[in-house]
Amino acid sequence: MTAELNQSRFLTLAQVADELNVKQSLVQGLIRTGELRALQVGGRGLWRIGRQDVEDYIEQAYRRTAERIAAGELEDGTETGEQE
């Protein structure tokens, strides 16, 4: 993360999408399915994601990916068919 993002306890959907290099709609989907913790602030539906929650999500994603590679469900190191 950039120095500016490291200073913030909470990140916006756009900041998390930028950090993960995905579309904002994917981040919203991760929140909806419970894969990424987030909280809604105020009555206007503003979402914020804790920096540590993003780090936890990344760590879990690495673990799940390694497990799928070990089980033969994914090919190691290929980028064909990459989706956002």
User: What is the ordering of alpha helices and beta strands?
Assistant: HEHHEEH
* Mean of residue pLDDT values: 87
Can you give the helix content as a percent range? 40-55%
- Which overall shape is indicated by the principal axes computed on the Cα atoms? elongated
How many strands, what sense, and barrel or not for the largest sheet?
3 strands, antiparallel
Question: How many structural domains in the coordinates?
Answer: 1
Structural class: mainly alpha
- By DSSP, the count of extended strands is 3
Which CATH top level class fits? Mainly Alpha
Give the neighbour order of strands across the main sheet. 1-3-2
**What is the radius of gyration?**
14 Å
Structure, explained:
The chain is built from 4 helices and 3 strands; from the N terminus they run H-E-H-H-E-E-H. By secondary structure, it is mainly alpha-helical. A 3-stranded antiparallel sheet has the order 1-3-2. The mean pLDDT is 87.
